Amino acid sequence: MEGTKVGEQNVITDSTTSESEIGIFKTVQNRFENFFFKEEIPYGLAIMRICLPIVILFTLIPRWFFARELFSTDGAPAQLGLLFGYANFFPEFSGTLVVAGFTALIFFAICSSIGWYTRFSLIAMLVLYVYFSMMDAISTMTKYNVISCHFLLLLSLSNCGSVFSVDAWRRKKLQTNPEKLPLKFPMWTRRVIQLLMGLIYFGAAITKFHTPTYLSGDQLKFWMATEMNHPHLLGNIIATVPAMLVTMCYVALIWEILFLFIAWKGWSRMVMLTMGITFHSMTAFTLGLYIFPMVSFCGYLSFMGQEDFEWIKKRFGFLFEKISQITQPIQAMFTSLGQRILTIPVHAMAAFPILLLTVIATGVQAEYAMDPYGVRQAAGPYELKPMDQKLVNVLFQPMPKLRESDKVYSFDLGRRMIGGVVLETSKVFKQGERIIVQASLTPPHGDMYLECVLFDDEGNVVDSSGKITQRENFRATFNYYMTCAHKPGKYRFLLRANGSPVEQQFITLEAGPQQECKTPLAN
Amino acid sequence: MIKRFAIVSFIAVYLGWLGYGIATHTLAKDLNTHPSSYFNVWDMFCGWNGYASRYHIIAEGESGQHYDLAPAPWGEFYPYGGINRHHYDTLAIHAPRAAANILKHTKHEPIKQVFVIEEAWNKKYNMKDWLWDKQYDRPKDPYAYYTNRVRLLPDGTVLERFPDVLSLQEANFLQADPKIRAIANQGRSFMRVNARPTLTNTKKTSNLSSKLKDSERTLTN
């Protein structure tokens, strides 16, 4: 045992263990400090603060015209709390108050974007945005609202208003030592937003694990077949290529799981963010999701640090200068206006509430003049028109059982399969090839007997096979080997469900390679 | 020091709350117990079924005349694309309030009762005609199924609720087994509390009352 000195450890073994524990603790602490509290100029968050409210405004402005109907006691609000068993989770207000509040929300969104009284504007916007979203579960509240609320909360706790903002411009004008600006701040809010993005994707991956028919591509197929979100160009087309859907589903799932762990630095960050931009852009073209990708792109701005911004500025600075030159007249106008109002503290303080009240009053007056329900029309309220009795009879007719043809979604023919679905659909085949015939079913369909019959061009039955398909199955597959016994020509596959013909596909069979069709030699 | 402590506490609580949401979602425990769970559970892809649904809110006057309440006469809000707001109420929970609001702001005879009718059709009929011709070697024959979801009074008081189209059809498949039907009937009270719509055999051809305007409009408008 070594001798001890004041301040030294007592025993060799103890000294080694204690030093390593302290070493590990110090390392973790340093890493935590470096990860969350390293200081930087918050360029990424500032750009996010500019962009996110603009994206949200795309959803707010159309709703302003219907604010009374969507959110007030003089309308038909649909509180989200009701879906969870809470009848009046939030208080409901009169039409005038709601219109005033919604107008204020739009005002705060604009102020947040331009960075005027940034923190206050962001907090006010967050409170009002949460309230109004929760008041309309069926046509306002979606997951992009939720993600936006999280972003607004974290932005309001950050110093995103310290650059690229009216507040920054004012501070520069009033600062005695302007070269000290812009200031650096701990990056913890940016880190939390990054972690939030990763956890969102991870949670979304968990949801997909819980959805049994996600990886088979069926959920995506049914989603692409509707325009419940917005119209889209490619959804209907891609939904007819199930093999592509299966591949996309797997890639998206793996990407979502990995994002939280590898999207932090280096090449993996670029790969993950690029894939994210690609996926979200594809959702616009295939699912009609327009706002969700834009909100996500705003979240990706949290991955832009000070070094990244300075790298971009160095390489693309000529673009910024060009934009600055083009917008010079507008800048000069606002600078002149700003000089007069905002650089004098008293004026700046008064301008904000005066403008807020003016905007609210104008909004309420405009909405009143609009008379959304038409109750103040010259002819009085709108009159309900009686319905055509034929239409009434159709709507109230007893519901029949599902037609057999409605239980089958598609009937595909191909050469290969991937992930349980037909790859490479075709209508032309050669002798010697195997044809995979697959019926995709639409639940609910019950237990069914499916029969696939092959007819030649003269209507003769060439082959027939059937199978029982259980109620939980989404697909039934038949294999046909087109041998040399099948003459080249036109053929027809007919699918029967529970005895009723439901789908058919015509194919052309071409002559195959000659060596496949040699007759066997007798012994 | 205090500020640093507050920041670290916030980070721990916030990330802990997000982690709690993921844990409850993964284990399917305590889900949907409180509206705040909507903010930390990321179930953006809960599942989409193979049928498109639309909802008709129909008022029956004392004269026996029927009135279509939605879209409202002053115009309706299109939240996302070309589909009216009330069609997104898939659980038919908020339709009663919408109906009461429309009746409150319009002129009409005294109303006896209001119905919320669901119309559902297989999503494959949403395909554009040119794409349908490429995919299918037969003409398109869209068909919609209708069922009453809610019956209510003009002030929005709900009198009865009924299952949706797909739930009824699925129940029909299950009850097709005579053994299961017999066992289920043994447990049923002789007093019927709720009237349920009955299913009949499939009728021929289309039940459309008018032409389709586009693939996403209701099949009866």
Q: How would you characterize the overall build of this protein?
A:
The complex is a heterodimer of chains A (523) and B (221). Chain A is α+β, with helices and mostly antiparallel strands and 523 residues long. Chain A is 52% helix and 15% strand. Chain A has a five-stranded mixed beta sheet, with no helix packed on it. In chain A, strands 5-4-7-10 form a four-stranded antiparallel beta sheet, covered by helices on one side. In chain A, a hairpin with a 4-residue loop joins β8 and β9. The radius of gyration of chain A is 32 Å and the shape is globular. Chain A starts with 11 loop residues before the first helix and ends in a 13-residue tail after the last strand. The N terminus and C terminus of chain A are likely disordered. With 221 residues, chain B is an alpha+beta fold. In chain B, 29% of the residues lie in helices and 18% in strands. Chain B has five helices and six strands; from the N terminus they run αββαββαββαα. In chain B, strands 2-1-4-5-6 form a five-stranded antiparallel beta sheet, with helices on one face. Classes of the chains: A alpha+beta (523), B alpha+beta (221). Chains A and B meet through α4, α7, α9, α10 and β3 of A and α1, β1, β2, α2 and β3 of B. β3 of chain A pairs parallel with β3 of chain B.
Q: How would you concisely characterize the structure shown here?
A:
The complex is a heterodimer of chains A (523) and B (221). With 523 residues, chain A is of the alpha+beta class.
Q: What is the helix tally of chain A?
A: 18
Give the integer mean of the pLDDT values of chain A. Answer: 88
The total beta strand count of chain B reads: 6
Rg of chain A computed from alpha carbons, rounded to a whole number of angstroms: 32 Å
